[in-house]
Design a protein that fits this description.
about 0% strand; mainly alpha; single chain; about 140 residues
Length: about 140
């Protein structure tokens, strides 16, 4: 009986412990683009969640996953959709800067997108919905 209780306790706590870690996408960005990680992903997560570190990690992971998903799903014939989503979901005070940087992009990749200050979860959500609607007719 003690072993069963211990097993149940460990299995119920382990997802919480794992949730407090950076996922593979966030770890990749932190390792390969440390300045962008610190000045964009981490900065905005800390601004939003202060010392609620579980939520900070959660937000960083979601932003990194959204960026990865966006890059993997992006098609050049949907560039205008991405452009509008970035305009709409730019962080306050960065819309014009993001537009200027986007206009200079030659390719859409992680390094290029990390230079933009956006809510990537919402950019991806907007992009996905608009592409789906565009392809529906």
């Amino acid at each position: 009986m003690k072993k069963l209780i211990l097993f149940l306790l460990i299995t119920s706590v382990s997802p919480i412990i794992l949730a407090q870690q950076l996922n593979s996408n966030a770890s990749f960005i932190k390792r390969n683009y440390p300045a962008e990680y610190s000045h964009i992903l981490k900065k905005y997560a800390l601004e939003k969640w202060n010392d609620n570190y579980e939520m900070v990690v959660y937000m960083i992971n979601n932003q990194a996953d959204a960026l990865d998903g966006l890059i993997n799903e992006f098609k050049s014939n949907n560039t205008h959709i991405l452009y509008k989503a970035i305009q709409k979901w730019s962080y306050e005070g960065y819309k014009s800067s993001n537009i200027e940087k986007f206009d200079k992009l030659k390719i859409v990749n992680l390094k290029q997108l990390l230079s933009l200050q956006c809510n990537w979860e919402m950019v991806k959500y907007e992009y996905d919905n608009q592409v789906k609607a565009k392809n529906a007719f």
